[in-house]
Amino acid sequence: MGTLRITAGPYTFRARFEEALAPQTCRAIRAMLPFKSKLVHCRWSGESTWVPMGDTKVGGPHGLAYENHTSHPAPGQILLYPGGISETEILFPYGSTLFSSKVGQLAGNHFATVIEGGEHLGTVGKLTLWEGAQDFAIEEV
Fold this sequence. Notes:
Blueprint: E1 3-8, E2 11-17, H1 23-32, E3 35-41, E4 46-52, E5 69-70, E6 77-81, E7 89-97, E8 100-101, E9 104-105, E10 108-116, H2 121-131, E11 134-140
Antiparallel strand pairs: 1-2, 1-11, 2-10, 3-4, 3-11, 4-7, 5-10, 6-7, 6-10, 8-9
């Protein structure tokens, strides 16, 4: 089972890949590692943060299909939205979330789940809301 170290601002989380439920998405994420960007607070999705990735193509030239997808992730259920009607992004929820964009409700591929550090998810959410973008990194350990 693959394990990830996720750094969001000053906090570190450990997450497990959901390889049995989202194998193609896990492969696509692995191909991007180590990944570094900025984490910002969501505008439409509620209690969540996200990593905007613009027009980045994930999973090859034809992109990824839906797998293990949801619009209602629980705190710590990390999603990849591979693009389509909105931009490519990683969703990092910390509370009540309905995954959306300016074009409406979205569904993202749940590819990893936080298994350590979950008690800091809300703090990271509030930090991005009140203090702005935070450094964000994902690496496999």
